[in-house]
Amino acid sequence: MRTLTFNRIVGSGAMGTVYHAELRVPRGFARTCAVKVMKTQGPDHDHFRGRMRDEARLLGMLQDEQILGVSELVQVEGRDAVIMEFVEGVDLSEVIRRSRVPPKALAELGAEVAGTLHRAHAARHPQTGEPLHVIHRDIKPANIMLTSRGGVRVLDFGVARAAFGSRESHTQGLVLGTLNYFPPEILAGQDPSPAVDIYGLGLTIWECATGQEWGAPRVQRAQFERRVDQRIAQLDASYAPIVPVLRQVLQWDPELRPDGGGLERMLLAAAEQCPGQGLRTWSREVVPQMLESRTEKAGPDPLLGRTVRLEMSGETPEPPPPRDPGAFDAPPPDAYRTFDDFGPPAAAVRQMPSAPEPEPAIRRPPVRRRTRRPARRGLSPVIVALVAALLGLIIGLLLLAIAVLIAILMMR
Predict the structure, then answer these.
(1) Mean pLDDT of 256-271
(2) Of 91, 138, 156, 197, which one is the catalytic site residue?
(3) Pseudo-torsion of CA 58, 60, 62, 67, nearest 10°?
(4) Do domains 3-87+292-348 and 89-288 have the same CATH topology?
(5) Between the CA of residue 50 and those of 45, 168, 170, 356, what are the distances in Å?
(6) Between residues 223 and 400, which one has the greater pLDDT?
(7) Residues 237/239/242/243 CA torsion (nearest 10 deg)
(8) How far is CA 6 from CA 32, 76, 120, 124, in A?
């Protein structure tokens, strides 16, 4: 029997709650993990459910040591859940509220994230070899984690755009992400490209250097470029080697921004010229203090303190399929791993199902053959499909109207 013991809440969002938990499997083996459990109700329940399952499948295919690892999809008391690698660290939004990241550490941190994004952008399906066309779409301080040993993780691929056959949710035409980190081309209605993630990383670097928020986006080119000049002028002189990199990353034209690999090289070169502590040394001083000063968020939760049985008991992670050597550049050695006791996270990742699990069919009352009454019929599948399509269209139009309204308000 496989069980999960829920110890504490790590975080919560629109789709669900993330818990620190302990997974126990037969023969007494136990390991620490993070479990994201889907919320039970809400108007967008089905959409969020599909997105969470898609995120789990995508992370299983990426298999990158600097992207939070996923081991399997399960159910916890009838609710969809994802078992993930647990990493003890702080996200950059928490860091920014307390201090600035020194120049050398910041350049090294930015290089780590840029390299991770580059590998994700260039990733291929581990079985078919087809490009996944991954775009994170929500790169910001809250989605980048830093460990006490200087390790970096990119979090939350829940709104990522990717192409793979088992995808359940479809987000084409929807504006997803965090408004303040939208580049101008997204506000103008263009399709997202990897340059969206590069722009988000540029804003993240600036916020880590200043301890301030960039602010609402500008939709007119003159206002946008004036804002960039003003924001860069606020940087301390010690960040001078990073300034040319930021100017390149924060270009109005997405075609002029470097790709992740080019940005990684630029930031590594800047790090050699920057003063101050490096990422590893600085993290070992700052992150443990932040972890110790955290206060547990108390509150009623039906899972906290409980041990529950997994409904998909008996399954063990299968080894991932052989990786294509040309799929993406091999990640650098993880010198700051914090989970050596349990083995590398990638070894515990199994390939997510290649196709979505079928939804349970609607049960119809059995036909009693002793009577001559005709069996009752449910709704026609055609009618159900038309109703579902109409609801999807209405939701899409409402989201589009909201995005247009926001853009209009920003222009004022």
Answers:
(1) 98
(2) 138
(3) 100
(4) no
(5) 9, 5, 9, 9
(6) 223
(7) -30
(8) 10, 11, 31, 35
Other CB atoms within a 10 A radius of the CB of residue 91 amount to 18
Report pLDDT for 316: 37
User: Any idea where the domains of the chain sit in the sequence?
Assistant: 3-87+292-348, 89-288, 380-412
Residue 102 tokens, joined = 């020194």
What is the chain's mean pLDDT, rounded? 78
Largest CA distance in the chain: 89
- At residue 166, the pLDDT reads 45
Q: What's the one-letter identity of residue 185?
A: E
DSSP state of 160: -
Per the annotation, the verdict on 329 as an active-site residue is: no
- Write the DSSP assignment of 1-45 as a string of letters: --EEEEEEEEEE-SSEEEEEEEEE-GGG-EEEEEEEEE-S--TTH
Is 3-87+292-348 CATH 3.30.200.20?
yes
Q: How far apart are CA 359 and CA 27, in angstroms?
A: 33
Lowest mean pLDDT among 33-37, 48-52, 258-262, 321-325: 321-325
What whole-number distance in Å separates Cα of residue 271 and Cα of residue 278?
A: 8
For the stretch 26-44, pLDDT in tens is 877 899 999 988 876 655 5
Question: What is the dihedral angle through the alpha carbons of 53, 82, 126, 255, rounded to the nearest 10 degrees?
Answer: 60
Domain at 89-288, CATH class: mainly alpha
pLDDT of 152: 95
Q: Which two tokens stand for residue 129?
A: 């070899």
